[in-house]
Amino acid sequence: MIALEARALRAALGHGSQRHPVLHGIDLRLAAGRWTSIVGPNGAGKSTLLRALAGLLPHEGQVLLNGAVLAGSGGRARARQLAWLGQNEGGADDLTVYDVAMLGRLPHRGWLAPPGAADHAAVERALRATQAWDWRTRLLGQLSGGERQRVLLARALAVEAGVLLMDEPLSNLDPPHQADWLALARSLADAGSTVVSVLHEISPALQADEMVVLAAGRIVHQGACGDAATHEALAQVFDRRLRVRELDGQWVALTTQ
Amino acid sequence: MKRLWTGLVLLALTLALALPAAALQLTDDRGVTVTLERAPQRIVSLLPSLTETVCELGECRRLVGVDRYSNFPAEVRALPQVGGGIDPNIEAVVALKPNVVLIAKSARGAQRLESLGLKVVALEPKTSADVQRVMGKLGQLLEVPDAQRIWRHIDAGVAAAAQSLPPGAKKTRVYFEVSRGPYGAGTASFIGEMFQRLGVQNIVGPELGPFPKLNPEFIVRADPDIILIGERNAQGLAQRPGWAQMRAVREDRICLFNEAESDVLVRPGPRMAEAARLLARCIAAKGRA
Amino acid sequence: MSGDRRGLVLALALLVSAAVLLLLGASVGSTGVESVFTAHRDAAAWQIVWDIRLPRTLGAWAAGALLGLAGAVAQGLFRNPLADPYLLGSASGAALAVSIALALFGASPYATQWLVRLGLTGAAFGGAVAGVLLTLVLANGVLHTLRLLLAGVIVGVVLGAARDLVTLAVPDILQAMQGFILGSTGFIGWSACGVMLGLLLPLLAVAWALGRMLDGLALGEATAASLGLPLGVMRAALIAVLGLSTGAAVAQTGLIAFVGLASPHLVRSIAPVPHGRLVVLAALMGGLLLMGADVMARWVVAPQELPVGVLTAVLGGTYLLWLMHRRSRRGGFA
Question: When you count CB atoms within 10 A of the terminal residue's CB, does the N or C end of chain A come out lower?
Fold first, then answer.
């Protein structure tokens, strides 16, 4: 079952005379229930690709979510199937942690309806999963960077969508919480959700099931994270300054000078 | 039966025609027709020139309140001040229970006062023809007999001031600066009219409008014989670029007017004759010697 | 105290204070408190209290509430704490329309008749709405926040220049324009009160209903879109609320500064709440602010009056300065 698919996807950034193409004809198929990492050098177009897959960027070509063309489906229906966590989601400083997480339930709630039991349950699950439940009455503006990131992640989890797209979810997280996030992504994929994460740190990215290596707006390689071919593609794309080795049962990326 | 009806209709018509004739009707500058049952005994004036006109017509005692800028004649300074022209204190005006409120055409508050049941007459004299017209209207409003006589007296005063100038004055070229900008007094303004009556030449021609904002270079090039200006605006006159070379500045042919004199000059009102005398006196003193 | 409770307590406090100020406003003016006591005997005193002081005080509250609502909507919509209701060209549009109306007044008897019926208030309202529409056209729709802001600034500058040209051409209106720009609550009667209150309630209801969406928008446009929020419709509705409430307030009181900008900040400093409650509390706060300024304007130098715009700046500005000082002393700026 293909959860997310891109056909001849082209996208450009900027407008007017500064419009430059970023993605040049991407064909991608992401299976359901798997955790995929998208990696590549700076400027490869990773975030752009993720946004286009989430339907947040105008593009040429087609993106299909669960078999249906993305552009055709209505906003709320799509929002229930696909959750998005962006980079630097700022500004909701006056909301409590609980309220921020509750925002993730917007696709499920009626316009003026108060939150129902299902909504409260989903928010609690999400906040517990990110270890943010204990300070759910604090204001977002009072939290540190890492704490904020966990709350924003909880917001994305609260949507309880089948597909979860996350752009740089590890920013501001300290190593223990990075490990927590990895465990969370693993459990979500095992439970049947489709997780796609854009990460610029290669070692965590190697813990996923599949890896998509992107360079200069084109897919260089797509394959399992444990495959030697994937490791070779990685080394190539980073000008041979990267090697992948196994350490304590995990794949680790090492850089050279 | 038919004759009874005709009679009744005729009676009704006669009454309908007769009643308004007993009341005062006045069309103000807004085009609004104000009807009063009799001449107003309590008047609030919110424009200095209207205050002066009422007093000039001899009905100063009917004033019960004035705006904060009305300062002539001296007796009106004792009256309660009810705000300015643009920001009248509605409550204070209403508290004075006036029969009529005189206000400038361009002022706010006329509508609000009318909605509270007051009679509002909006007049605003800007030229000497306006002064005559306003005087006539106020004379009608106050039931002053022969307001035109008072006007003729003023007019004669202006003519006398004109005659007091030596014959060579007709060639004098003058410039009146109204405020920093510099804004000059054009031919169509009240002061411009005074200049015309006095027979002197205004360097600001009619094509520029009543109060044009001039390029200072224009004034330097026009090289007026006399510069007329208020004391407050005269500070730094010689320091203006190029002005120190002007003949009028070098030879000190500058007419300075203090606050009180400036008031007289810029307000188109019954003190026209005094304005003309002020101008004539200075022009005669500082003119081509 | 939890956030919810704080918000509720603040709302009650604002309402009670407003009621107290209303009574105070009825007793204060150029003729003093005596008018209230003699009102049942003296027809003129009754008129002063009932027809002048009460509608003026209540109208000041309504205008302040409209401005506070508009300020909260503007700050939520543009995610910018410096946003104020005059951002999208409403102030400059209203000022230009008023200057044209003043200039045409008396230019021809036909124009005068028409203008007398429309009144300066009608012209100001129309001008404010036209200014916002012009900004929307220039920004090519509501979809790009940055473009909207830029268009608003451009429209503000251009219409301001047009107004300057009008005042240059007809310098007689300069004083009247100054009065309009400075702002005044002195001309509000019962009908003006009714218009403002009649507009305040539905606009407040719409803004409150869209509060949840404003919260979502606070996370960023991409995230809000990913949550399925109809951004285009939302923004159009919010801009309509912004334009109409600002226009209604400006039409009656002129350009009173600071109320729209300060009210949401004042609310947030006391009780940080989500946007739905913020717009309601900001309206209540704005109403109290302007009403308080109006009462003080009449009281401090009675029987004269201070310009109310100066007092709103002093009242609101002093409190915000104190807040900033306290926050910076505790360390850190939020």
Answer: C
Which two structure tokens, joined as six digits, stand for B180?
Answer: 């920093």
- The Cα–Cα gap between C30 and B175 comes to 44
- Cβ atoms of B140 and B24 within 8 Å: the answer is yes
Q: Examine chains B and A and say if they touch (3+ CB pairs below 8 A).
A: no
For residue A12, report the phi and psi dihedrals to the nearest 5 degrees: -135, 155
C219, A92: Cβ pair inside 8 Å? Answer: yes
Amino acid letter, residue B27: T
Distance to chain C for B145, nearest Cα, Å: 29
DSSP annotation string for B91-117? HHHHHT--SEEEE-TT-S-HHHHHHTT
**Average pLDDT over every residue of A21-27:** 91
CB contact under 8 A, C228 and A103: no
Strand partners, B202: B174
Torsion of CA B116, B119, B120, B123, to 10 degrees: 180
**Residues in chain C whose beta carbon is closer than 8 A to a beta carbon of chain A?**
2-3, 79, 209, 212, 215-216, 218-220, 222-223, 225-230, 268, 272-274, 278, 334
* Burial of residue B207 (number of CB atoms within 10 Å: 0-12, 13-18, 19+): exposed
Computed from CA positions of residues C44, C179, B204, B227, in that sequence, does the dihedral angle turn out positive or negative? positive
Q: What was the ipTM of the complex prediction?
A: 0.89
Phi, psi of B174, rounded to the nearest 5 degrees: -120, 160
Count Cβ atoms within 10 A of the Cβ of residue C333 and give its class: 0-12 exposed, 13-18 middle, 19 or more buried. Answer: exposed
3-class DSSP state of C280: helix
pLDDT in tens, B46-77: 999 999 999 999 999 999 999 988 988 999 99
Q: How far is C108 from chain A (nearest CA, A)?
A: 48
Q: How many CB atoms lie within 10 A of CB B239?
A: 8
The pair of structure tokens assigned to B32 is: 């609004």
Tell which residue, C154, C129, C127, has the closest CA to residue C139.
Answer: C154
Identity at B48, one-letter amino acid code: P
Give me the helix-helix angle, B272-286 and B147-163, nearest 10°. 0
CA-nearest residue to B185 within chain C is: C171
**Whether the bond into B73 is cis, omega within 30 of 0:** yes
Please tell me which residue of chain B has the smallest CA distance to C169. B212
Distance to chain C for B62, nearest Cα, Å: 20
Residues paired with A11 in a beta bridge: A23
Separation in Å, CA C195 to CA B173, C28, C101, C189: 57, 24, 21, 10
Report the distance separating Cα B10 and Cα B3, nearest Å: 10
B30 lies within 8 A of chain C by CB: yes
Instruction: Give the amino acid at A58.
Output: P
Under DSSP, the state recorded for A107 is G
Under DSSP, the state recorded for B185 is: P
For residue B94, the chain C residues in CB contact (below 8 A) are 44, 47-48, 51-52
What tens digit of pLDDT does each residue of C178-235 get?
A: 888 888 888 888 989 999 999 999 999 999 999 988 999 999 888 999 998 988 899 9
Q: Which residues of B touch C113 (CB under 8 A)?
A: 31
DSSP state of C49: I
